[in-house]
Design brief:
Shape: globular
Number of strands: 0
Order of helices and strands: HHHHHHHHH
Radius of gyration: 23 Å
Helix content: 55-70%
Largest sheet: none
């Protein structure tokens, strides 16, 4: 699974477009119930992600979050008019493009949330990035793209269902998602695209350096440990009282640095340039 905000958003968008362009909607009502459920999960993840940036659904508000609420309520009503989700049939949809899009959207939500503690307070300096409007605008724009794809899926499914009542709710859901997409893109004019590199927070416990580790993996582990040190320093500076790295943990970091210093320079094996 990708590990930056931009990579995860692109993965979700790519899978949704695959659903739109190459996947036929099921004729069986039980499978349609699974698709409606997955769409509902996707919208829920988009809502939660937007709420992390300060977007809240309010009456008479044209913000994307308000329209996502409309879409989610309609999908809930559509699900109530379809058979209950069958676990065996749901398992068959575990690795479909739509399911992968939902998983990537959930990972976006988890990635953003990982930079804050259970009380919502920042645990890394990255969390402060979303205090800037341009950073929030990037996330809103990504959510708008996903809302557009979800609207196309709702439209295709609405044309495939046999129940007029379900079709009406899917039509309402599509409208809500389309509006969320339009207003989300309008709000994303001054977006900071550098926020695409926003990383997942690594766990505080460092991974031990082993003699069997390939030298090519060392820079990755060094980068993770730098993130760990940044997190510990940030929490200590703000007096959060979270458990810090132990002495043995610091020794593990030192081993990675020692292993990195033994790596040959990237061009050492290349012959000298002619002339």
């Amino acid at each position: 699974m990708p590990t930056t905000l931009g990579e995860l958003s692109e993965a979700a968008d790519r899978n949704l477009r695959e659903v739109v362009s190459g996947t036929l909607m099921p004729d069986d009502a039980r499978e349609q119930a699974v698709v409606v459920g997955l769409l509902g999960e996707l919208v829920r993840h988009l809502q939660t992600t937007l709420e992390s940036t300060g977007e809240r659904p309010r009456r008479a508000n044209e913000a994307p979050a308000a329209h996502l609420t409309t879409a989610r309520n309609a999908l809930r009503r559509a699900a109530g008019r379809l058979p209950a989700v069958d676990t065996e049939i749901a398992a068959l949809h575990h690795d479909t493009p739509l399911s992968r899009a939902v998983q990537a959207a959930a990972a976006v939500q988890d990635l953003v949330a990982s930079h804050r503690g259970r009380d919502g307070a920042p645990v890394t300096p990255y969390a402060l990035a979303f205090t800037h409007r341009s950073a929030r605008a990037y996330l809103v724009h990504c959510s708008a793209d996903l809302a557009w794809g979800a609207a196309r899926v709702a439209q295709a499914l609405g044309e495939a269902v046999s129940s007029e009542a379900v079709a009406v709710q899917l039509y309402v859901a599509r409208g809500g998602l389309d509006h969320a997409s339009v207003f989300g893109r309008a709000a994303g004019g001054q977006q900071d695209r550098a926020i695409a590199a926003f990383p997942l927070v690594p766990p505080l416990d460092p991974r031990p350096a082993l003699s069997t580790d390939a030298s090519g993996s060392i820079p990755v582990h060094l980068a993770d440990d730098c993130e760990r040190l940044t997190r510990v320093a940030f929490e200590a500076l703000h007096g959060r009282g979270e458990p810090a790295l132990s002495g043995s943990d610091v020794q593990q970091l030192a081993r990675w640095r020692g292993a990195g210093s033994e790596c040959p320079p990237p061009n050492r094996s290349l012959p000298p340039a002619a002339g």
